[in-house]
Records
---
Amino acid sequence: MPRTTEQIAELQRKVAQIQSWYHRIDLGDGIETPGHFRMADYLRHYRLPERMDGLRVLDVGASTGFFAYEFERRGAAEVIAVELPSWDAHDWTPRQRAELAAKSATEKRKVDREVMVDGFTVVGEALGTRRVRRIWKAIYDLRAFELGTFDLVFSGAMLMHVRDPILGIQRLRECCRPDGRLIVSISTALLDQPEPLARFVGEWNQCNWWQMSPACLDAVLQCCDFAHIDHRDRYTLQDVTGRFHDPTYVCHAFPRR
Ligand SMILES: C[S@@+](CC[C@H](N)C(=O)[O-])C[C@H]1O[C@@H](n2cnc3c(N)ncnc32)[C@H](O)[C@@H]1O
């Protein structure tokens, strides 16, 4: 049903109320969320199945939800979007954690709401979502006995925020059906050479720990029981200002059957 003028104004108001958007998402009626990254411009690099009818999908580190809602748009039967329960729940260093602890409860709640919660909710309401559900967990706590298994597990641009990406990938594998697949992207400036290199980044104020070379990510995926890597691609993610450049590696990993 087309939106009324009042509904359009109300949606514009809700979008404008949120200060921190990660994704630019087209909500119709000329309304776009004012995020940093328009992922629609980079979708071809992810080689998502054109149609995802009937699939059960896990989107880990969903942020403001571009990918989760894209999976639903492509027909996924169920999308579970995973996000950390709070800003504090990132893998911060003790020093950064102490700085965060010094913030007031009101300030913390505002960040949690604006960065972790509200954007995703507003997009879901605007798109009339029916098959996307969000849960609050760290990647380490994704267990198949609790969540079941998925045809498609997706992890976009989040493994660099994780102190133990190998345990994280083990969890992604646990949640992936034997005939399913993981689609994973990482930020990495390391070259695509045979030697599997990981570089400690240590930008602890941004919670960035590791950069893995493409060969390193492939090797970790294989050691975590993914048999076959395919659809390897690289691209440079830019924010909407064009000032921020993030070299990115994407691939699909298929479990050992
Ligand atoms: C850079 S954003 C990527 C958003 C989206 N996946 C994409 O590709 O556009 C990374 C997201 O991962 C989440 N994240 C960071 N550490 C996490 C962890 N340990 N477990 C689950 N999610 C995490 C962050 O809160 C953030 O929403």
---
Amino acid sequence: MLIAFGSAKGAPGVTTTVNVLGDIWPGDVLVADLDPAGGDFALRHRAPAGAPIDPERGVLSLAAAARRGVTQSELAAHVQTIDGGLDVMAGVTRPEQMTGIGSAWPALAHSLRSAGADVLADCGRLTPGTPVMPVLSAADAVVFVVRPSVEAYAHLRERLQWLSEPLQIGRSGSVPVGVILVTSPSDSTAERDLDRLLQYARLQVSVLGRLAYDPKAVAALSGRSGRRIDRTLLIRSARQVVTSVRGIASGRTTATAGN
Ligand SMILES: Nc1ncnc2c1ncn2[C@@H]1O[C@H](COP(=O)(O)OP(=O)(O)OP(=O)(O)O)[C@@H](O)[C@H]1O
Ligand SMILES: [Mg+2]
């Protein structure tokens, strides 16, 4: 399955969320760093032996190869394992490289869909004109990450309304859309408020749960600190989020809001 993650505005934690979910995802998983503003995975991580991540092997090299078609086994040439063991397709270093992919985007999305592993794609901020639209359309689910604030919710609603038409949100057979809240695990008010806002806006979008705001666990994510984080609030909350994300992506869960 291919799941696209993004944000409406600000830096709510898309890359961090993809990183955490990838770390505990059941089965084979691959992270594709598609942030048009420039990838962060290669900057935040190193290879397990301490070598830097090669920015030439990743989304750009796959996009070039995808024009003529890529087999599942050829995909491995564009993937690197980072500290902590996660397989990552490195992103671009300069935004203009992303727009340069141009007409290869649908082929790139197709290659990701046939990767033989579940692909979690970090698509960055989803603004009008984003080059990643073919990936959103080809995804099994589109997931927004948001922090709890009135402004963030307003921007999220506006962005979902903008996406309603191209993604046909809520129509039968369309890409399911969900939202992950990054907040305190005890903050049930934030989730209720968000759910209510989505309903008022008549958006068929599910709230997929809360990922804990946990700076200490996030700081240990790169795998270099040696700190075990499996019992942290971050990982405990992420396990529930993984279940909900897999649920909507596999069509097992229908939208809870807006019905
Ligand atoms: N669950 C979390 N708990 C604590 N801090 C977090 C969490 N998620 C993200 N952060 C922090 O928030 C900041 C932004 O996170 P991140 O880079 O993941 O956001 P982003 O949405 O990918 O931003 P951008 O659009 O710039 O790529 C970072 O300092 C990160 O450590
Ligand atoms: Mg990011």
---
Amino acid sequence: MTTARFKGLIFDMDGTLTIPTLDFNAMRNEIGLPEGDLAQEVFKLPPEKQQGAWDIIERHETQAIHDQILQDNAEPFLARCRAADIKLGIVTRNERRSVDALCAKYALEFDAVVTREFQFIKPHPAPILHILKQWNLPPQEVLMIGDYVHDIDCGRAAGTKTCFYHNQGSTDHGEDADFTARSIDDLSEIVLG
Ligand SMILES: [Mg+2]
């Protein structure tokens, strides 16, 4: 019987639970946006241009919806977490249908899912706070895991512990995180020992 260090895990989806699928640079180029946070750059566009930008993003997401592949060893890890009574959640800026497609493909179940349709998106802490309330868990007993600085900022703002997921070859940084994992096996070590 393993003693888990956390009572709940909240995952980012693209690039964390899954191998990175979305090509954010291709989306930026097609919309004509500079480097930077995709959603924030879209919100800076004149109002009449924003819908067109979201249409482009949604087209990319639709193309990617069935291409999502879980990270190596993610399935057995999630199963071990389940067996250890750890709550499992997702906070993503992607759409609900993308999460549903991933869950259907791999027969996964999560205790809480917050997607772009929610009123606030990362790095705002509200998506995580929403889940903590649902789970009735104090933030320090929950680990937020993500491959982008927003995931870490979101967790820190909500008061959870944080784990930066460093994909091979990624230039993203997460030095403010409590932990860094370079694989699901690393993450398993952090969570289950
Ligand atoms: Mg991500």
